[in-house]
Structure prediction request, 126 residues.
Amino acid sequence: MQRRRNKSKSKCQNMHAKRRAMERFGINLNIEQLVKEIQQQQLTFLERQSNIKTLWYKELEGIKVVVVYDSMRKQIATVMPYRYYLERGGEDVAKENNKENNSNRSQPTQSNRMDASYKELWLEGC
Prediction:
């Protein structure tokens, strides 16, 4: 009978996160890259769940994802759909990011303003 070797908690978390990413999103997760992005604070911080776990927002291949990071082991604990975070009562960070992106867009052009004013005049005449 072959003896079973014990796996460390960080290895188990690593395997779990990769398995969940494939199961939930069909994505091969690059753990090392995600950890580096979290440590350099390139992801959007959502909340601290405990003294060890923090939640981060990331779009992976166009899919909104919450990454649970274990700061003690410096590992990704798991990934879950962003909607789970929202259903749990979290703030919609993606909406805030879209507002910022929209506010950076240029002001309406002269022709757009004229179209709007003609529309207003036309509605007043009806």
Q: What stands out?
A: Strands lie at 44-48, 53-60, 63-70, 75-81. Residues 97 and 111 are 28 Å apart (CA to CA).
